[in-house]
Amino acid sequence: MSPELAFVLTLAMRMAFAAAFVVTASIVTERSGPVIGALIATLPISAGPSYVFLALDHDAAFHRRGRAGEPADQRRDDLLCLTYVVLAQRMRALLSCLSAVAVWIALATIVRSCNGRWPAG
Question: Does the global pTM surpass 0.90?
Answer without folding.
Answer: no
